[in-house]
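Extended Data, panel c. Modelled sequence:
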Amino acid sequence: MTDDVVEHRRLIIAGTGISGLSAAIYAARSNNDPLLVEGDEPGGQLTLTSEVENYPGFPEGISGPGLINDMKEQATKFGAEARNGVIEDVSKEPAGHFRVALSDGDVYTADAVIVASGASARTLGVPGEDELMGYGLSTCATCDGAFFRDEDMLVVGGGDAAMEEANFLTKFADTVYVAHRREEFRAEDVWIERVEEKVEDGEIELLLNTELTEIHGNKEDGVDHVTLVEHPDGHPKEKLDDPATADEVDEYDFDVGAVFYAIGHTPNTDFLEGTGIETDDDGYLVAEGGRGGGQTKTGVEGLFGAGDVVDFHYQQAATASGMGVKAALDADEYLSERERAGELYETEAEADAATADD
């Protein structure tokens, strides 16, 4: 172990969202000495959710931050350790262990790594966004749609996710409006057809060639209304910024009680480039999957993936938690096998101690 290494750990978990914390609880109970590195979004997406009503075991619901804090306390109770920091690079060393470098210069080594770094929902950066995220603005219709029953709701996006969320929200909304900056949607035909059926039934209205520029409201009362811009040729924001076309853009306020972004997620996997790990075209980790054990294994031995960094489909708290548990169990089996084979990494201090005992 080189001088710049803070310490060696049996297991490091990247991320302290619900998947990482679930993994930490199980890993700590298996005596795998997990170190959680919180990342640049401590607690993950749930910290943006004011109320969680669909996580099993809480009939009255629980706040997202409350659930995360309780799980973190549970993990540390069993021996997990958490620290602030952002992992900058992970690499596989010739001896079979991992080198984990943080952005503050600290370096750890580990026998195994669970990647539960999540996927960050893409946002627009419009005024009102930061203040109202979790207070009428959401990136998950399945999580939050029921809170706004009988309200008019706005979905922003034009792909499969937007079509799926708009379709889902018709269960609760008075009317669902879909704002898309172009005339044509990017979604698959099957989703467009389903939405068009809802349009015919009066449950969905399409706001084409339209973009959101501001969200109005406050944390106490939620979203009051939004500001939209429209141009018949699409991409109205660009045209609004161009003096030659600004006068052609229609800008207006629009009353809705909730806004849902459905413009995609960015999986947090950049720090894994040095491992050579396989990702799909969108950057999500490719894990083993299947029905038996080892479902969270990746193509890099000793590196496991869990939660939204792998799962681009379900992206729910309960499924992420389950994947975290699977990753901890898979990692425990891997570590136990290497320990029995005498293949776990041995630091210089440990080697010297073993020699002295001999």
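DSSP finds nine helices and 17 strands in the chain. This feature is highlighted in the accompanying rendering.
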